[in-house]
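Continuing from the previous page...

OK, I double-checked the sequence for Cytochrome-c oxidase, cbb3-type subunit II against my notes and this is the correct one:
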Amino acid sequence: MSDRAKVRVKSLQEWLEVNVWGLLIATALVLSVGGLVEIVPLFYLKGTMEHNAFPEIVWDKAGQEPIVTVDEAGKEQWNWQPGDGVRPYTALELAGRDIYQREGCYLCHSQMIRPFRDEKERYGHYSLASESMFDHPFQWGSKRTGPDLARVGGKYSNDWQRQHLYDPRALVPESVMPGYPWLDTTAADPDRSLRVFGFTLWPAGTGSRMQRHMEGLRHVGVPYTDADIAAAERLLDGKSEMDALVAYLQVLGTMVAFDDAKAYRE
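Thanks. Re-ran it with the corrected sequence; updated structure tokens here:
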């Protein structure tokens, strides 16, 4: 008699213990059901996004007026001011966000302040879901080799940020962060073709790469106006990747003017 024949299965648990494929399928089913039970309600519960109860969290002119316009002389005119509410990123900030992802900054820095006293005292007001409503993908992260960056905007000057990105240990001797000196000499939005698997999707000279990026984001619900997209080339003209990344870092956490008297999350 074989060893398999000697095993008498008395219950479903015992059967799963001796059947590896059955155990894998059962585990997948249990995790799927548990995940769906936790995630699906978030799509229809109004309390998931705080701006449903506190509309001032979101800029009321998003999708109606351009965030910033640039005239022929290169002068910027802002329609949004810090504290006006969550809005889409400008072309320069969006380019910086792309660089942030490309360089893997999210692997060492989170952008999610939890509602714990120690985190609020160190980093600031706890993060809200509505603050990430225009992020595709969000940058919450799961590891903090370096500090959380959700509220880093305005904490340091532009010059400090540039120097820190160029040579972190010149400002923070104990830092383990690598330097990014090449960002200073690389254009933020070069006019180059986009090739995927050997096929040219967009040849060089067919418009700003960032404009195409913003068009794509508009298709998934980010409320960019035509003027926002049209301003991309002028906003990025002559800007380096260093300029873009600093612009992105400096806007983090500056969009919402929090009221300490309000409980945004119960």
